[in-house]
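User: New here, any thoughts?
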Amino acid sequence: MKRFLEILPGALAWGTIAAMFFASWLFPVQTAVFIILFDIYFLLRTVHFAIHLGFGYREMRKAQAIDWFAKVKELPERNGKTWSDIYHLVIFPMYKESYAVVKESFDSFLKTNYPLDKFIVVLSGEERAGEETKETMERIKKEYGDKFYRLFTTAHPDGLPNEIPGKGSNEAWGAREVKREIIDKEKIPYENILVSTFDVDTQVYPEYFGRLTHAYFTAENPDRSSYQPIAFFTNNIYEAPVFARIVAFSTTFWNIMNQVRPEKLITFSSHSMPFKALVEIGFWTTDHVSEDSLIFWQCFMHYDGDWRVVPLNYPVSMDANVAPTFWHTMKNIYKQQRRWAWGCENIPFVFQGFAENKKIKLGQKIYWIYQHLDIYWGWATNALMILLLGRLPLLLGGEKFNATVLSYNLPQLTSDLMNLAVIGVITSAAVSVALLPPRPVWFKWYHNFLYLLQWILLPINLIAFSAVPGLEAQTRLMLGGKHRLGFWVTPKARKGEELRE
């Protein structure tokens, strides 16, 4: 059963591509009609994207204008707790990131509009990362150790059984260690802790923890919910080459859009959840790559479908993909996108869990099965079908088809439909400029136009840094064995530093 489910997404993607070739050869008229209908479908999805991106951007700006800590202090007691009873456990898994990267993240905490004595911060390094990482952790602890209620550092041992090296196994180690060394020893109630897991380059905005605490106290079922901020990839956006900027903004836009579609939300990258639930499910799995989304499904299965994601409509910011050279950056972007696409490894876990758990409602199962298949099928195929395969009937349909009116009009029809879809590109371009962090001194007024014009390269990005790595990830899962992906850590550094991979 598991091998069938691992083969399924890749088989659907490659089956679709193969079917386009064979159908264009054997049934060119029907295929041409399908292509036109699919282009219309793609246009409607683009309009849907633009509308939701606009709504999401508006809600985010409204949330950013609120003093959330002031609102938190006005909240009444709930379930025997007030805001002052809550501790925020923040876990930073770390590999070989530089001191400058880690320092920026910790500095952002010092600017937060929330009492720092309510924070237990964990910096969990990798033992295998070497002495430089150990020195960075010690330096951070020395500089920031007295800023929080507790700052706890630990080193995740290498080679533990049933683990793959990666973020999930590191987070699980750090969470268990801080539970044993601080939380249990000081008898802090698990139900009074919210845990946030952040990439080590994550910088929080001043009202993030006020917004998180407010969401927790006002959620319909706070202890059966994860809490998802909007992940910006803009920390170093001015250092990023054009393709890296487009990828960074595209991912940011996807996160903004999903905030106004909470029924589709699952956890991604940096997020928060009740610590009690994390303990009850046994922490993050240590043998998967995609721990940030899998943690949602662990909770969903454990609580028989009684788990959801509450959108915060409030951002945190992380790094765009930047390396010392242009081609090194392109290589790293591809690897990062392939790792994200490796989320298809969750399909066997989710589908098998649905088969085994009879308490989850059938409607929930059908909905999420469809969502999974639609997301990963579209990831690997949609851009290829729109941009490359649309002319196959003209190439393979033969003289008889090429003599038809449909053949003559197909290129113009598809071109017109794609021109209408430019509304999505225009919306993306406008929002990308609005989301730029404070401009550096070298940034002139005309750079805004260059940042708008960069979006003409979006079709290349959709193929090279979305469809192709998505298809490769699904193919590797389908083949299994030595082709399976491990966790690839995106290298992070600051200008003038050497990336350590």
Notes: The two ends are 36 Å apart (CA to CA). DSSP finds 19 helices and eight strands in the chain.
